[in-house]
Amino acid sequence: MSRRGLVAQTLQMNSWIVATSQDLRPPRKMSKKSHFDMRLKEVILNVYKYETQKKSLTTAADDIVEEVALKIGICKRSVYKVVREYRARHSFAALLTNQNRKRCIHLVNHGNTSTIRRKVHQFFFRNELPTIDNVLKEVND
C-alpha cells in the first residue's frame, strides 16, 4: 500500500488524526555548496520580517528564526547571518566575481612553462612529491 493510501486509511479510521502527505515529507534542504544570491537573501529577509510582524512581542527571536529556517529549508545560522548583514548595511552586497583574476601561468612565457612542467613530471616519475622548494632548486640548476 502506498504512503498516501495509508494516510487516507488512517484518516478514515481515526477522524481525530489530521495528517496529510505534506506532513510526512521532510522539508526540502538546499545543497551545502551553494551560496545565497541577492534574491534569496531578500526572500529570507522578507519571510523574517513577516514572521516578526505576525508573532507577538513576547515571542523569542530564536523561535522566529527557527520558523523562518523551517519554512525556507535553510539552517538557523544562515538566517542569522542574512539578518545581521541587512542590519549592518541596510542592503545586500553583490557577490564578487573573479573574472579578471590573473593566473600565474600567464606571467611566464611558453618555453619556461613547458620546462617547469617537465621538471614537475620528473618528480612524479621518480615517485617524489614536487614541493615548491624542490621544483625551484631543479629549475634553477
Automatic annotation (TrEMBL):
It comes from Callosobruchus maculatus (Southern cowpea weevil). This is Uncharacterized protein. It comes from the Eukaryota.
